[in-house]
Amino acid sequence: MYPDLKGKTVVITGAASGIGKACALRFGEEQANVVINYFDDKQKADANMIVSEIQEKGGKGLIFQGDITKEKDVKLLIKTAVDEFGSLDVMINNAGIENEVPSHELSLEDWNKVISTNLTGQFLGCREALDYYVDHNIQGVIINMSSVHEIIPWPHFVHYAASKGGIKLMTETLALEYAPKKIRVNSIAPGAINTPINAEKFADPEKKEGVEKLIPMGYIGEPEEIAATAAWLASSQASYVTGLTLIADGGMTLYPSFQAGKG
């Protein structure tokens, strides 16, 4: 636990499920003010339930429906957080999508949809948070959710891999640009995580085993393990850390085929 996070205002995009939900609950445990962004009405009940859990943990919660690819929605998201809780301290750009398509069959519509959500949406979140931090002289924190596929090529997911590679250099560039103002910008690159988007794949024992073979630690991670990483990055314990992609993948990026010493 990180006492300095108590009472801080944390905005999390795509927070109705998966890693975003785990982050929201973890910051609730830290007794922070948590703004839970969700995309559509189908997620509203889940978002409200998360708020209830946050309040039970001693934090405060607020839900906000909005499309993070739309500039006006992101601006309103930040304004809502500040109007409700008086400030913004931590921005977590978590919302992301993926779909599998052979690259020669990938439509421009599918390309644009993934890039708009995963990269442009994160840029808008970064920009609005930075604008608030600079204007109010706040040494704030930004955490972008990337993926091991900012490093590992992923056939049939070229739009996803491109978006995550973009997040890496966006994070590093913003960290360098705003370091003199003591604004920290980092990202987290999860590996295989047990989230709803992966539920169908991991429900198949053969497919699950195939993924586990790619992970030196031998198991698929849980969203709470990523949330713990986010809490550390947001805390004063990471006060000298900026421009980092913190890889949380059980060793997936360590060339597991060489684990036995062959090659």
From TrEMBL:
Q: Which UniProt keywords apply?
A: Oxidoreductase
Question: InterPro entries, from UniProt?
Answer: NAD(P)-bd_dom_sf, Sc_DH/Rdtase_CS, SDR_fam
One GO MF term = glucose 1-dehydrogenase [NAD(P)+] activity
Cell cycle is among the record's keywords: no
What are the EC numbers? 1.1.1.47
- Residue stretches in coiled coil: none
Similarity field: Belongs to the short-chain dehydrogenases/reductases (SDR) family.
NCBIfam families cross-referenced by the UniProt entry: PRK07231.1, PRK08936.1
Q: Which PANTHER family match?
A: SHORT-CHAIN DEHYDROGENASE_REDUCTASE FAMILY PROTEIN, SHORT-CHAIN DEHYDROGENASES/REDUCTASES FAMILY MEMBER
Kindly provide the name given to this protein in its UniProt entry.
Glucose 1-dehydrogenase
